[in-house]
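Fig. S4 source data, part A: sequence.
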Amino acid sequence: MRHRYDCPLRWGDIDQLNHVNNVKYVDYLQEARSALLHACRQAAGVEAHHGDAYVVVRHEVTFRAPLRFRFQSVAIESWVSEIRTASFTLDHEIFQEDADGTRTVYVRARTVLAPFVLETGLPRRLAEQERDALLPYAALGERSRPVKVDVPREHAAHYPVQVRFSDLDIYRHVNNVKYFEYFQEARIASIRRLQQGLQGFPRVASVIAQADVEYLAPIVLRPQPYDAWSVISHVGTKSMVIESEITDGTGGAPEGAVLARSKVVLVFFDIETQRSMTPPPGFREALLDTLGELVSSR
């Protein structure tokens, strides 16, 4: 069985391409996830304990088609694809369904969650009641895989991540959605470094095809910024890959524990046709030349 949640859109969700911004989809998934977990508890007659909570371990988000603003809600179906001793995985589909049953899928996503004790911040096992509550929505599938990145600091673009008070969730941690926003800002900063080497070419837009984020440790509010490091690790004919990490170092110091990592596939995009495109001749070569040895050595 799948759980359905109808999510209203907001005008502020739209980006400069007149599409729903990639960060906002993760916000929608959070709303759908909360609705599903509430439905699980209600169906099983299980009450939420004050000291128990769930933390997001990983998001895997595949963007299938651009979603434009509309006054109707967008539909989200969610189900349980894996139940383990100390975690469970939810799969999601964000879509629009026409009267004739035709479905346009905008996003497919997977979210891994782990229970923990709020007082101590330590992980715990899923209780038997919790497992029973999830089972009606279970349709077990493939296992989620860790996000692997390689971000050598000597080649990486640095972006200081300044946490805002409004970024925090009810656990006083930075909300999982905000990490996507941090990585977005870091990604834009890293791409800006390339502009000088691409001055002879028209602007080439890009959209996200895949975004995977893994959460390793909480980010909390503090006066000092955290550090985001990003590298373009691959350039294809129609796409490129950006790998990033957020660390707890300050002031651009290369040391520091890794708090989150991200791997994003960007597809070059024609704004007029609203389709993927091959950049003009020489663009890829100029981009590789600007990047230097980092990409060519991989």
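Fig. S4 source data, part B ends here. The two ends are 43 Å apart (CA to CA).
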